[in-house]
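Structure in, sequence out. Go:
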């Protein structure tokens, strides 16, 4: 027997239709939210990727990019290295020196050796733009070894002979250690002046590197941590606006000691070429320099052997006690561990002491004449 028939009222039918529509609408909204969330996530990833990508370098000599004004050599890997010659002609020079400039500097930033001393000793002084600075091509494969090899090739192409002296200042002083490691046979002597330090070099007591590291500005501690542990974020960290980047990039003046401030007027001439230093881009000059200085190195200066076991040359390390950019205690430790290094500690000097009257001459005399 057939069951009782059920009549559905018009109101019930409308209610059922509305519920079905609401269910479909809810499903549609959930789908839209999921889609929008996915699009937003992809957008954030894309934005983040773009934010950490440095702009392309403005290669000197390329179309619409900075023009070439300096003499340059072409290296074996195709890069160009710009240089500047000073002093007496190299053909008649008794002493030939290659100068390695510091961070945010270029070939013009050399020690001001007095003309009288240059003539008296017969000094030829060669400086160059390190990779990415000034008019030297960037080196995307730059390592602690590559600059030493650039120096060797530069010396060979310019005919400096089998041996020459090197002087490195600040970040250039850090790189001077690499010449003692990779091209010691080409050196007649080395002066390492107010050198930067890689706080991750092995062989230093952890309490000592921690003490030195803690003397840095908080912004520099973070900048160096990022550079060392996440080098691919170096460009972003030093260009974003939420946190301060490296104080050296932004020229924080309270990093200078009273003695530095006293000699700073002598640096006024840098304004003539300051724009040229970073002209190919801050990433290929400053940021890559930070990455070079504070990445994991293959060696530590403490592992170096005496390059002059028969006293045929000498290595001199100079540092000012009042240096607020590079703490002095790490240079002290090196001098204690490497007995063959002639250490010169200046009690009232800051980072810029080579600019003070007579200091460049004193550094050069010690290097060339073996004065302790």
């Amino acid at each position: 027997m057939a069951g009782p028939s059920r009549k559905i009222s018009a109101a019930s039918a409308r209610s059922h239709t509305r519920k079905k529509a609401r269910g479909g609408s809810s499903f549609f909204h959930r789908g839209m939210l999921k889609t929008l969330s996915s699009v937003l996530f992809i957008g954030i990833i894309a934005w983040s990727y773009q934010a950490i990508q440095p702009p392309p370098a403005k290669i000197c000599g390329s179309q619409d990019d900075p023009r070439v004004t300096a003499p340059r050599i072409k290296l074996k890997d195709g890069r160009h290295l710009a240089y500047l010659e000073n002093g007496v002609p190299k053909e008649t020079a008794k002493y030939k020196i290659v100068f390695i400039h510091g961070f945010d500097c270029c070939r013009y930033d050399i020690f001001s050796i007095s003309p009288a001393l240059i003539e008296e000793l017969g000094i030829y002084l060669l400086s160059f733009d390190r990779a990415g600075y000034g008019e030297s091509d960037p080196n995307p494969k730059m390592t602690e070894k590559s600059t030493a090899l650039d120096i060797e090739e530069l010396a060979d192409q310019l005919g400096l002979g089998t041996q020459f002296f090197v002087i490195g200042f600040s970040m250039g002083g850090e790189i001077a250690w690499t010449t003692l490691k990779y091209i010691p046979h080409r050196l007649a002597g080395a002066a390492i002046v107010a050198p930067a330090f890689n706080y991750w070099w092995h062989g230093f007591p952890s309490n000592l590197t921690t003490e030195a590291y803690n003397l840095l500005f908080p912004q520099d501690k973070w900048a160096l941590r990022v550079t060392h542990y996440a080098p691919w974020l170096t460009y972003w960290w030093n260009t974003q606006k939420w946190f301060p980047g490296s104080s050296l990039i932004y020229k924080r003046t309270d990093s200078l000691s009273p003695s530095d401030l006293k000699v700073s007027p002598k640096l006024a001439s840098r304004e003539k070429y300051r724009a040229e230093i970073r002209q190919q881009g801050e990433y290929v000059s400053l940021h890559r320099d930070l990455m070079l200085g504070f990445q994991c190195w293959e060696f530590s200066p403490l592992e170096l052997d005496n390059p002059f076991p028969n006293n045929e040359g000498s290595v001199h390390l100079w540092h000012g006690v009042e240096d607020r950019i590079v703490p002095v205690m790490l240079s002290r430790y090196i001098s204690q561990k490497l007995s063959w290094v002639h250490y010169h500690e200046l009690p009232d000097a800051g980072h810029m002491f080579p600019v003070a009257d007579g200091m460049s001459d004193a550094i050069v005399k010690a290097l060339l004449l073996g004065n302790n």
